[in-house]
Amino acid sequence: MTRPEQQADRRDRATSRLIAGAFAISALGAVGFAVGYVTGGQTQLAGATLAVAFAGLAVGLAIWARKLLPTGGYVEEHEPFASPPAQRRLAAADLTGSGSPIRRRGLLGALALALGALGVAALFPLRSLLPVGSRRPDRALRDSPWAAGVRLVTAEGRPVRPDDVTDDSVLPVFPEGHPRSGDGPAFAVRLDPARYAVRPPAGDLAGLVVHSLLCTHAGCPVALYLKGTGRMLCPCHQSAFDLLAGARPVAGPAARALPGLPVEVGPDGFLRATGDFTAPPGAGFWSRQ
Predict the structure, then answer these.
(1) Phi, psi of 140 (to 5 degrees)
(2) Which pLDDT tens digit goes with each residue over 183-196?
(3) Which residue ranges traverse the bilayer (predicted)?
C-alpha cells in the first residue's frame, strides 16, 4: 500500500469511528428516553434525550454521506447533433430536386397571398380599438341626449306639461327621440321651495325640479319617493337622496348627488331642457377623469 493510500485509509477509519460515535450517542439518547419514560421521569428530560437520539442519528448519516459515499459530477455522453454526411446529402437532394416544395413558386405565391390577407384582416379588429369616427369613450359617458330645446316626454312618448307633475308623485321623463337612452332617464317632482335647505343645482320652476333617475352608486333607478321627507330611495343598495338639499346622498353607499336637469316651459307649453345634466349621470365611477 502506498503512502497516499495509507493516509486515505487512516482518514476513512477515523471517519468511521466518528460516525460510530454519533450513532452510539443516538443509541444512548434512545435508551435514556426509554428509561425515563418507563420510570416516569420528567417530560423535559424525555424530550432532551429524544432530541439527542435524533441529533446523533442525523450527524452520523450526514458525515457518512459526505465523507464515505462517492461524490463528484457525473456526465452522460450524448450523441452528436449533426446528422451523418449521407443523410445531409439526401436532404439537400430532396430540397433542390424537382419535387422540392421550395421549387413550387406558384404554391409559394398562393401561400404568401393567404398569409398577407390574414395579416390585413387582423388589422380590422385593431381598428375598432381606435376612436376613429366615433366619440371618445370618456366623453360619450359624460354626455347624455339632453340638450337645449329637447322636450321632456313620458314613457309613452307624450310631451310633459308643468301641470302633469303633481304634488303627490314623481313623474319619470325621457328626452324626446331617445326613449331608450341608457343615461337619459330622469324624473320630475314638485317640491315646496320654502323647505329648501339647498336650492336645486339646476334651478326649479315654482318648485318643479328634474333630476337624473340613475343612482350615483351603481346606476339603478331611484324609484321610491318619500313625499314627507322629500327623499328619493334607491331599492338596489338603499341609498337615499335629499331632494330638499340639492339631492345630496344622506344614506347608503352613494357618494354623489343626483345630477339636476335645467328645464323651462317652451312656447308650446311643454317642458323642455335648457342644457345637459349638471353632472355625469349614473354610477360615480364614470365621473373619474
Answers:
(1) -65, -35
(2) 899 999 999 899 99
(3) 18-39, 45-65, 107-126
E-assigned strand segments in 111-214 = 152-153, 171-175, 186-190, 208-212
CA angle 220, 222, 227 (to 5 degrees): 170
> Among candidates 126, 144, 125, which has minimal Cα distance to 135?
144
Fold of 141-273: Rieske Iron-sulfur Protein (2.102.10)
Cβ partners under 8 Å of residue 217, min gap 6: 234, 236, 237, 239, 252, 253, 254, 255, 283, 284
Could you give the 3-state DSSP secondary structure of residue 265? Answer: strand
Q: From 55, 1, 7, select the one nearest 28 (Cα to Cα).
A: 55
* pLDDT per position as a tens digit, 192-245: 899 999 999 899 998 999 999 999 998 899 978 888 888 999 999 999 999 999
Query: Helix, strand or coil for residue 214?
Result: strand
196 three-class SS: coil
* C-alpha separations of 65 from 18, 62, 72, 171, 186 in Å: 13, 5, 12, 88, 82
Q: How far is CA 59 from CA 20, 46, 62, 191, in A?
A: 10, 20, 5, 89
Determine the number of helices (DSSP H) and then strands (DSSP E) in the chain. Answer: 5, 10
